[in-house]
Write a structure and sequence with these properties.
It is a single chain. The protein is an alpha/beta fold. The protein has one domain: Rossmann fold, CATH 3.40.50.720. It is built from 9 helices and 7 strands; from the N terminus they run βαβαβαβαβαβααβαα. It has a 7-stranded parallel sheet, sandwiched between helices. Helix 3 packs parallel to helix 4 and helix 8 crosses helix 9. It starts with 8 loop residues before the first strand and ends in a 9-residue tail after the last helix.
């Protein structure tokens, strides 16, 4: 039986826009109850209203994953309204600049959002998941976590760390009934996707990526990439790392100061 064969209560971070918002719409259309979490109140409430007007159920919680107190308050508010069954750690951002051009504050903020933010959310929901002996944690990653690209060194590191953490955590929770899945998102037609440029890389529609994320929630594999092309690229990253490294460099060479050979 598929995980989403009955209604579930699902918390998504970064749910006010992009992949998070599109995934929430797709899940609500299937009859699931959504808890939408993000920092910006106006966009968050608009996303929740969109779902309610379509006949779905959505609770909006203003929550900043980089703030431990905000995470504690937000998750407590979500749990007060009913049990949670799925956590989708989707909140994230990418600074696309050479490492030497980034300030230490920018680098730390990116890690706080992409890596430590996911950890905070997991730490907050985990006691409830373990107590009910069920739950699914979905950590949204990127191909850059497996094949890093110049101009995204810190972002790539944050996603590589998130994946390593996810796979280790899965073993720690194996006896509890709590599952952990990594979803490898492609370059997507979102606000974040528009701020990053990789020449020769096709940006996929957000609704397509949302459907793939819903599939990952439903099937809960160890790791799932959101298109056949990205599944092939993950294999190449493992089997032919130098080839992928050259391809990644070629896609961003125009953003670097060094001349092309």
């Amino acid at each position: 039986m598929k995980f989403l064969s009955r209604p579930r209560r699902i918390l998504i971070t970064g749910a006010s826009q992009g992949i998070g918002r599109a995934t929430a719409r797709a899940l609500a259309a299937q009859g699931h109850s959504l808890v939408l979490a993000a920092r910006g109140r106006e966009a968050l409430e608009a996303a929740a209203l969109e779902i309610r007007r379509a006949g779905g159920g959505a609770q909006a919680i203003v929550l900043d994953v980089t703030d431990p107190a905000s995470v504690a308050r937000g998750v407590s508010e979500a749990l007060a309204a009913g049990p949670l069954e799925v956590l989708v750690n989707n909140a994230g951002s990418c600074q696309q600049r050479p490492f030497a051009c980034c300030t230490e504050a920018e680098l730390r903020q990116e890690l706080e959002l992409n890596y430590f933010g996911a950890q905070r959310m997991i730490r907050a929901v985990l006691p409830a998941f373990v107590q009910q002996r069920s739950g699914l944690i979905v950590n949204v990653s990127s191909l850059l976590g497996s094949s890093a690209a110049p101009t995204t060194a810190n972002y790539s590191a944050s996603k590589a760390a998130l994946e390593a953490f996810s796979h280790a955590l899965r073993g720690e929770l194996a006896h509890t009934g709590v599952r952990v899945t990594v979803f490898v998102a492609p370059h997507t037609q979102t606000e974040l996707g528009a701020r990053t440029e990789f020449r020769g890389v096709t940006s996929l529609p957000v609704d397509y990526v949302a459907r793939e994320l819903v599939y990952a929630i439903d099937s809960a594999p160890r790791r799932y990439a959101a298109s056949p092309v990205y599944r092939l690229l993950l294999r190449l990253a493992a089997w032919c790392p130098r080839l992928m490294e050259r391809q990644m460099l070629a896609s961003v060479r125009h953003l670097l100061q060094e001349p092309a050979p």
